[in-house]
Design goal:
mainly alpha; 0% strand; globular
Length: 447
């Protein structure tokens, strides 16, 4: 059996093993959205969403591409046995996260003091706890991605995907039962607590699962080389998150918290539709690093093609029922305040369905050392999103934000596909002459 055919089989097995975990995790995340929407209403939910988004974007400074770099270097260490560099990177990354988090916290506290006359606002009260959340997320994410790259996909994902939302649900319900209501600040306190427990679980799991070679290795430090890699990766990650959160911020700032709540609910439903794409990416991305590191370019090409078809199928199968039943389903599930989320969801879903056809081009660029293309793509996405959002959001509110997001997302992915194909010869899209050959291999593996 050839290495490339074996890679297809490994990918299918990893996808099947990951699907149930993602189904549970996405279901819990959806329950979180429904619960907060019903307990907080559109305006308060919008305030919480804006605070969480602000904390997420501020956290980019502390992560600075380090988790993605650690994942890539873990794949390389497995391929070439250079565990000393990985151990040195993890040691250096932990300290970098703590130092950068302290800088972010100091900057926010300074700004918080300057805004002393408005410290009573719900947004600022929630952001105080959002600053505490930043380093906790960064350290947990670092260990999660390393575990995934080591082959412990479930151990790396389960705490983030299942434990964290489950703890959050229990905490929010406890706050509601005790106080009779849930404010943005209270929800953020619960978020910090549940994430801290998740981080501790991930650290303990990493210490138990790390290879003996990594424990024995003498740390090797290459801070200049790591910084050179982190800069484009950090920019790419920042622009990626900005792509996902920019529309929400613009809707909140230009159309108000209630419109932000409407957009957030549509985005939550859209994430449910994207669960198959998440399963595919989780299974494929660690394999991309290993296959490329092992020079198995044929196997890599087959895996990314299969990934693209899986993403398209998932978007269609999960999205069409929500589009058809949306006018009844959204008010019934989230509350009458969120009937306006239906057209927003439809537009976002159209963007995801089209985008899925271009596959994992951005992940391929990151894992093959062409992360500059990822940076360029996300810069294009952010630029189009800002320009289109400034034009559309003041007029159309959340619907305008969804249009800006869909158009910018597809444009950036197409750009990355083209650049990756020119640099590596790998066609990540469903428009590929290998389709018939790949279908035969998939049937063989399933049988």
């Amino acid at each position: 059996m050839s290495k490339s055919v074996s890679a297809v089989g490994q990918f299918l097995r990893a996808s099947r093993a990951t699907a149930m975990q993602y189904a549970v995790g996405t279901g819990l995340t959806f329950v979180v959205g429904v619960m907060l929407a019903r307990l907080m209403g559109a305006t308060n939910y919008g305030v919480y969403a804006l605070a969480m988004t602000s904390a997420t974007l501020a956290g980019l400074i502390t992560e600075f591409g380090l988790p993605t770099l650690a994942m890539r270097e873990t794949g390389r260490a497995q391929a070439n046995g250079q565990w000393g560099e990985l151990r040195g990177l993890l040691y250096w990354a932990d300290r970098a996260v703590l130092v950068l988090s302290a800088i972010v916290a100091a900057g926010f506290l300074l700004r918080f003091g300057v805004l002393g006359s408005t410290v009573g606002s719900g947004y600022l009260q929630a952001m105080v706890w959002g600053v505490v959340l930043i380093p906790i997320v960064a350290i947990g994410k670092l260990r999660s991605l390393v575990l995934m790259a080591l082959g412990w996909v479930h151990s790396g994902q389960a705490p983030m995907m299942i434990l964290r939302p489950l703890l959050f649900i229990c905490g929010v319900l406890a706050v509601w039962r005790i106080t009779g209501g849930v404010a943005a600040r209270g929800a953020m306190v619960v978020q910090v607590s549940s994430t801290a427990v998740t981080m501790l679980v991930l650290i303990a799991t990493y210490l138990r699962r790390r290879p003996a070679e990594l424990v024995r290795a003498t740390p090797v430090f290459r801070p200049r080389e790591w910084l050179q890699s982190c800069l484009p990766m950090g920019m790419s990650e920042g622009l990626r998150l900005l792509q996902g959160q920019l529309a929400l911020l613009m809707v909140g700032w230009l159309a108000g918290p209630a419109a932000a709540g409407t957009y957030r609910v549509a985005d939550a439903a859209n994430q449910m539709v994207g669960v198959v794409a998440s399963v595919v990416a989780t299974a494929a991305v660690p394999m991309i690093a290993r296959l490329y590191g092992g020079q198995d370019h044929e196997g890599l090409a087959r895996v990314v093609l299969l990934s693209a078809w899986g993403m398209v199928g998932g978007a269609v199968v999960l999205g069409v029922p929500l589009v058809v039943l949306g006018r009844w389903l959204f008010p019934a599930v989230f509350g009458h305040d969120f009937g306006a989320s239906v057209p927003v969801f439809v537009i976002l879903w159209c963007g995801i369905a089209v985008n899925a056809g271009f596959g994992l081009a951005i992940s391929v660029a990151n894992m093959t050392g062409h992360h500059i293309y990822t940076t360029q793509s996300f810069a294009l996405i952010a630029g189009i999103n800002v320009i289109a959002g400034l034009v559309l959001v003041p007029v159309y509110g959340a619907v305008g934000g969804a249009c800006a997001t869909a158009v910018s997302m597809v444009s950036g992915t197409v750009w990355c596909c083209w650049r990756v194909y020119r640099a590596t010869g790998i066609n990540t899209t469903v428009f590929n002459p290998r389709n018939i050959q790949l279908l035969g291999q998939v049937r063989q593996k399933i049988a």
